[in-house]
Amino acid sequence: MKGIILAGGSGTRLRPLTGTISKQLLPVYDKPMIYYPLSVLMLAGVRDILIISARDHVDMFRSMLGDGSRLGLELSYAAQDEPRGIAEAFLIGQEHIGDSPVALILGDNVFHGPGFSSLIHQAAARLDGCELFGYPVKDPQRYGVGEVDAEGRLVSLVEKPVKPRSNLAVTGLYLYDNDVVDIARGLAPSARGELEITDVNRAYLAAGRARLTALGRGFAWLDMGTHDSLLQAGQYVQLLEQRQGERIACVEEIALRMGFIGPEQCHALGRELGDSGYGRYVQETARRTPARAPESAVGSTAA
């Protein structure tokens, strides 16, 4: 499976913070925002990842993450000249996707919960069309809302419903088979001139090939699109890390536990981070954790 992180957009709701920098490079407590969606794809076992950003920001991401080899990944980059909808990612990334299925995640989403890696692996293993992830919210009128049957098949999908038929908001993590490229290519732009991801999902729904997994009690899904939500996400990460003594979305640790790199490489990455709390954590993790194969690491580290 190939991966795409959509880190485009102009971040207008976060200005002036985003006057000269991509939103996805802003700090969320102790690490850049981009680490959080990257960690989700890594936990899913996805190692070949395309990062799509505004043209002015591509070199910023490349400078931070390089080609990914230090983490046992293959990272590539592409520009989105202007925001034209989430589904445009499949057209920009069609060469990257090739004949493979694809996992798409929005660059400003945080997912965290027990056994999340196992959950994604299970969804990918049964993929036959599209797999969405729903999160229960108290105000579903503000979201795209999915309704499922007893087997988890999607039976309805409505954007900002006046009378919601469920409380499951569709999150910014999507798994698709290779048909998604042709589906996206055949979409008509919305009134806003965008290729809507909801239209992609409705195409799979109409074909009876859409599922939705509910992220239940114990999970957190955060969308960092405003000043308040960005601050809240940082506070959430700070609270859990300080209480539990473990890092959320520590990509070096995940690379080690997934078997993408070995302890020596992990320790070297920690040394390069200097005498920061994050760097010391990475080094200590390398010292006390032997490398494990991806199969044994599934579910071991939450995003």
Automatic annotation (TrEMBL):
Catalytic activity: dTTP + alpha-D-glucose 1-phosphate + H(+) = dTDP-alpha-D-glucose + diphosphate
Pfam families: NTP_transferase (PF00483)
Enzyme class: transferase
Cofactor: Mg(2+)
Superkingdom of source: Bacteria
Gene Ontology MF: a single term: metal ion binding
Ubl conjugation found in the keyword field: no
InterPro entries, A to Z: G1P_thy_trans_s (IPR005907), NTP_transferase_dom (IPR005835), Nucleotide-diphossugar_trans (IPR029044)
Key words, A-Z: Magnesium, Metal-binding, Nucleotidyltransferase, Plasmid, Transferase
Catalytic activity, EC: 2.7.7.24
Coiled coil: none
Family recorded in the similarity comment: Belongs to the glucose-1-phosphate thymidylyltransferase family.
Protein's job: Catalyzes the formation of dTDP-glucose, from dTTP and glucose 1-phosphate, as well as its pyrophosphorolysis.
Protein name: Glucose-1-phosphate thymidylyltransferase
Native source organism of the sequence: Streptomyces parvulus
Source lineage: Bacteria, Bacillati, Actinomycetota, Actinomycetes, Kitasatosporales
